[in-house]
Amino acid sequence: MGQCFSDDLREIFEIWMRVAPVAALEEIGVDFCEISVFIAAIPLFRDGLNLWDMVSQKKLDNGFGGYRLPPILHFPKSTKRKRSPRKKHDDDQSRLFDLLVEVAGKLSSKSENSTLSPCCINGTYKKVVKRDLLCTEEAQKSETPDLLSNTVLAPEIVIKRQATYASKELPQASVPEYSEPPCLSVKSKIHDSAAGGLVVSKGGIGCFAYTDTCRSGLIRKSSVITEVEEEKAELTRVVKYEDQMTQNRSELNSMDMYCLEDPMGLDVKPPAPASSDSSAEVPVCRDYPCISPMPKHESGMEHIVHKDDDDNFSGCTLPSSTTNKVSWPTNCTGDHGKRRLSTSKYWKTATNMSKYGQISHHDPKRKAFLHGKQMCYTRQRTHRSYFKRRFFEHRSASTSNGGIFRMEVSNMHEKNNNNVKMHNPHGTDIQADGATSTKVEQSSYKSVKFSIKSFKIPELYIEIPETATVGSLKRAVMEAVTAILQGGLRVGVILQGKRVRDDNKTLCQFGISNGETLNSLGFTLEPTETQTPPSLTCSKNSHILCFNDAVEPLARIPSISLPTDQDSSAASLQPVVTTCPESDRDSVHSPADALSLDKTTENKLVLVALPATSVGALAVVPLCKPKRLELAQRRIRRPFSVAEVEALVEAVEKFGTGRSLFCLILFQMIGQSLVNAKRDHFSHLSPSIFRWRDVKLRAFDSAKHRTYVDLKDKWKTLVHTAKISPQQRRGEPVPQELLDRVLAAQAHWSQQHAKLQIKEEPVCSDPKQQLTSSSLLEET
DNA sequence: ATTAGGG
DNA sequence: CCCTAAT
């Protein structure tokens, strides 16, 4: 069985040597695991060993990543790449591709016929070299990868790169001077270490990188070698399709960026009169159509920023004649007659500042808030924060657009229509009522127009039986909204991240007239009562907002109590509908699940009016909640029964724990995101991609209250239980037989897992390699 | 979306 | 069972 691939490999190797000079490696990459097999095999290959022997002799520990690999190829988009220098090698590459397919197919079928347990991937795995690490001095020298170069990929390079990768050193750090090929996105390095890959196609060999904007790709299964030609045609289509998709995606992104000015969707109704005692009468933006004269691209930044907080800023820029004004002495504003202030990015970044800046250090509330925000942002929005920070750093004075994207400081005696009052308990400094404020020297006052474009609606949690009527659901929502409004609100002022507590000082004293300061001026709406979270909403469209606005959760309304049986018996638990604005909109959860949703949605009870919009309007976004409501209730504890334990043990014995080798290979090949997205495509290729997930799916699918995390945790405790003496164990005793199986399975799978770990010491028989490897390890 | 690991 | 980081 040894010589199966000898000839193929030899040919591949030869072609490889011609096609893949070092200078081109950074573009080629070796994420493609067959390639890495070959690379890893090179030193041994030279010694006359063939791949299969190496596999069976476990001599490929250091770098082998393709054994048992199904013939999955990846054909990503590769449009913008210039391939002209490579044209000559089309034949070589074409041949290489064919060979890869063929060898992969043979490998795959070979492994299928192997005696290995189907549940146990018995191979060794070494993390495949990342393309990011493939840069060498040679690569730096040659600006244009010269495929005709005679430089070849030497084994030492492989080892070095593997070592580098094993050290987890940042790719950028290892090759700082390397100037990227245009086709590569820096983002891919930053955001997705597992992203990137090698393209092996009829069209040539190249690398790709997954980025936020270019994450296209397709996983192809090409097990039938004789269908290569068909594959070719298909590939062409695929590439075209991917191109199309990417283009569409770009357009969509553009839409995302630019469509927030939608006049229809953005106008906001006046706040509900329900604003109780109106300790805060909230500024209102009337329903003026919002028509931006600005070219879209000029305001794109602002819109991006808008999206950052999932703020659906509604509202509009009001004509000056109707803009609400807040006035203060002119001398505070300097001599700008009309000052164009920074647009939303400044506001927003200022907001960001206040969110993350000084504000958090002293005020426990802020801390709570910050905590919450961190949770929220950590979830999915890291890059957004990144954008915001970027914008903040790049804030350059009022270079931005004119038109409506500004906040004006205008003369007080302009006709104004003060339908907004920034209520101040002491009523001294902020007056929106022009009539009262104009009596002070008009000439020395200038007014600032504010409009608050929208208010965030607190997240509403509503539990309602699935048998309930829509009408009752509406009533439930109404109750929740009402509950929010009952608390009453007051307004706080946030200046440069700090709460302004002294109500008697003037705006001048705080320098609020200063444009810079204005950037960081914000208003908070805080509940006067602690437990009832406040909200500003308009009764008319509140439900729309509640369900459609991707708003930051403001508060968790104590669930409208339902006769849910919180007591054990899962059968009696009634499903509930959780109306969660973010993601679980249409999910049905068990009560426990619904409760568990709370973990990220607490502690934002304060509405903040923050200057954040490109139209110079104030937006109200959540800041924090005054008092940390009780944490989201823990899920009900449901001890595992012996039967469950048995099922778990059985499943783990079958599937194993953790990620499979196959999974890791896939990560290398196509990136984790794609593996996630396409995981179902692999289900028939490997016993399990995500093992805990499969354990859950196959063994506990009907147990809705058991998540894969639960199962993983239970396994953890089971292992622990099995290791301790029976006297130390608590709870329902687990049969020793089961515990023994637990230990056995754990031992087996942890051993398997250990094989996947990057070995620090090369196992290669070649002593030269060891030397090189270890010395290079020191280097990193 | 999943896993790893500490609490 | 929760939480978080990493992937």
From TrEMBL:
Q: Does the keyword Methyltransferase apply?
A: no
Q: Which organism is it from?
A: Zingiber officinale
SMART domains to which the protein is assigned, alphabetical: SANT
Which stretches does UniProt call biased (Polar residues)? 767-780
Q: CDD domains under this entry?
A: SANT_TRF
For this UniProt entry, the molecular function terms from Gene Ontology, in alphabetical order, are: telomeric DNA binding
The keyword DNA-binding is assigned to this record: yes
Q: Taxonomy-wise, where does this protein's organism fall, top ranks first?
A: Eukaryota, Viridiplantae, Streptophyta, Embryophyta, Tracheophyta
Q: Which UniProt keywords apply?
A: DNA-binding
PROSITE patterns given for it? Answer: UBIQUITIN_2
Q: What is this protein called?
A: Ubiquitin-like domain-containing protein
Where does the Ubiquitin-like domain lie? 448-518
Q: Which domain of life is it from?
A: Eukaryota
Map out region (Disordered) in residue numbers.
Answer: 759-780
